[in-house]
Amino acid sequence: MSTLRDYLAQKRRIWLAKQETISTAEPITPTAKVTAEGRSGVRRIRIRDHQVLSDSGADYAGYDLGPSSPELQLGVLGSCVTHIFLIQAAAADVVLDSVEVEVTATIDPKAGTPGFEDVPPSPQNISYTVHIGSPATDGEIDALFEAVERACPILSLLTNPQTITGSVVRVPAQREESAL
């Protein structure tokens, strides 16, 4: 069976090859499309050729068919931190046997309700803990952690102010069928 060490050796070869072309690389434009579906209200997220379902629990009229949007955001942060640990370990040739990232936050369901107008609806007190199995020294792991915190795009997205613009485009409404 292949190990994380085997994967990191492969990742290092690919990372080194990518460094040769990075100076001429063009910016990319990732796109995600999300559709609310019929009777369930489940949100189908489409990214490239992949699909992810997002839903709510019964307390928000959901069917618990997938993680909620805030839960997905925590998962996205954890996924990105994990991936950047792998990239940075491959780049620095640091041996890792295991990487597990746990992300937690607090969400106050009272947010925005009367008397709690100042409570933000967004997840708060976000923290993550990285569990690493490695024969590397503490100094190597500390350097790796610092490199991850500098390079992780989703960590940067969440910790640095962003400009996000939105718009609405009206499409024709569907006609309701009359019940007979």
Automatic annotation (TrEMBL):
UniProt name for this protein: Osmotically inducible protein OsmC
Which Pfam families is this protein grouped with? Answer: OsmC (PF02566)
The species this protein was found in: Actinokineospora globicatena
